[in-house]
Amino acid sequence: MSQPAIIEALREATGEAHKALETDIDLFGRVAETDSRRDLVARFHRLHAAVEPAVEPWLKDMPGLEFSQRRRAEGIAQDLSDLGGRPLTTRPPHVASAAEALGWWYVLEGSSLGGRVIHRTLLGQGKDLLGLSFLHPYGADTGDWWRRFVEVLDASDRREPKARPDVLAGGVAGFRYAHEVLCGD
Ligand code: HEM
């Protein structure tokens, strides 16, 4: 089935960045040892804890988004605590408009699709999943939550087509930020 134009455009704009992140994050390597798993989960927490307040002013009342139910920082903090880690705080990035915020949120929301695949792979390999529940926050409802997010994106794109470059810029900035936080020194 064809996807809304805004999703195709986001994939086009961020596909390379996703590939680079997927390679550089070395997720399967890092979850294999307790210390590196704790560090990885601390970084995921930092990503979500920084981006959520940055987009909140723009997204919290957006119709159909159910923003507060999509927030994951608290759940990741619990995962981190299960691994004996403590949250690190960081300054929120600057997000300048609702359109940009949707692009940023595409990055965080889309990670639940990759996360579902990773979760399934680890489960299939018989690995323990302590501290990794954040990878698969919506469980069997992942597809529904994603579909509803895409509907919100699409509705906003149809309502305000001129803002599309800002949505794409948000997606690109979101991936750059995620790469820095998850893979940086
Ligand atoms: C080892 C790490 C990763 C792997 C193996 C991976 C893999 C995948 C896969 C297989 C999909 C498509 C899933 C589906 O269609 O059901 C996907 C989608 C996506 N992932 Fe990742 N991912 C990884 C990390 C991440 C991270 C850390 C982020 C962001 C922080 C991210 C953002 C996205 C986005 C935005 C999509 C949605 C793309 C779209 O459908 O438009 N991914 N990922």
TrEMBL record:
It comes from the Bacteria. GO terms for biological process: heme oxidation. Signal peptide: none annotated. GO terms for molecular function: heme oxygenase (decyclizing) activity. It holds the Pfam family Heme_oxygenase. This is Biliverdin-producing heme oxygenase. It comes from Brevundimonas goettingensis.
